[in-house]
Design goal:
rod-shaped, 60s Ribosomal Protein L30, Chain: A, alpha+beta
Length: about 260
């Protein structure tokens, strides 16, 4: 029994010794590992901290870049808006320029039309003035006189009455009164007689028909323009005459001719 106990104790002691040796071995083996692991963990913690710091820095950079991108986008948006506005303004300016050009074209056309109208008006005025300064005969009459007489006969007065009626209502006209004689008698006597006959006709027109004296031109021509054969009584009668002619401007002559139709 004692022997068993001693053997048991020896075995237990042997186990205890082996256990202690094992624990010592383990402690000697594990401690360096733990130290290495701790060192590695320390290094890893340091690396992780550095990486966290770098990540934080990169995150800030990313944030800054994002902010810059946002600002750039805003600037681009503002630039696009300004460009759009500028394009619209340019379009409006182009439209206004086209309208102004069209208005200028219309004004030029109107000016050309006005110039043409003015030129035509000036041309018409020049023609009118030229026509007003050009006279043509509108009416003529012939009154006859007795031998060596300058007194108007009833037939002569009637002829002058009809003639004067043609001058009524006219603004501008000239009446030519030209006296003649036959060849009987001296030329000086005939010249004076033809002048008295012309004056008698002019006096009658001025006194009886209110013809302005300024509108009457008189001339005694004597035996200058015979119309009949002075060798015959009938021819000499035709030569003892006063010719009366009514001259009006060409424009007035056209008006008179229309009125007479």
């Amino acid at each position: 029994m004692r022997t068993k106990l001693m053997m048991t104790g020896a075995i237990a002691l042997s186990f205890l010794s082996a256990s202690c040796a094992t624990k010592k071995y383990v402690a000697q083996t594990v401690s360096p590992v733990e130290a290495h692991v701790k060192d590695v963990e320390t290094k890893n913690d340091a690396k992780n901290a550095e990486q966290d710091k770098q990540i934080a820095s990169q995150g800030q950079q990313i944030t800054d870049i994002s902010t810059d991108l946002s600002r750039t986008k805003e600037r681009l948006t503002d630039t696009d808006a300004k460009a759009t506005s500028a394009g619209q303004s340019a379009q409006q300016a182009n439209t206004a320029a086209q309208e102004a050009n069209a208005a200028a074209g219309r004004a030029q056309s109107a000016a050309d039309g006005a110039r043409t109208f003015a030129d035509q008006g000036i041309t018409r005025l020049e023609r009118t003035m030229d026509a007003m300064n050009k006279y043509q005969m509108s009416k003529n009459a012939t009154v006859l006189f007795a031998v060596n007489q300058s007194t108007l006969t009833p037939d002569a007065k009637k002829e002058l009455d009809d003639f004067a009626a043609q001058a009524q209502g006219l603004d501008r006209y000239v009446i030519e009164v030209q006296g003649f004689t036959d060849k009987t008698g001296p030329a000086t006597v005939n010249d004076a007689l033809s002048q008295r006959r012309a004056e008698e006709v002019a006096r009658y027109l001025a006194n009886e028909h209110k013809i302005p004296i300024r509108s009457i031109d008189m001339l005694g021509s004597g035996y200058a323009q015979p119309v009949g054969d002075d060798k015959t009584s009938a021819g000499r009668k035709q030569n003892r005459r006063v010719e009366v002619r009514l001259f009006v401007p060409e424009t007035a002559s056209a008006t008179v001719a229309q009125a007479q139709q």
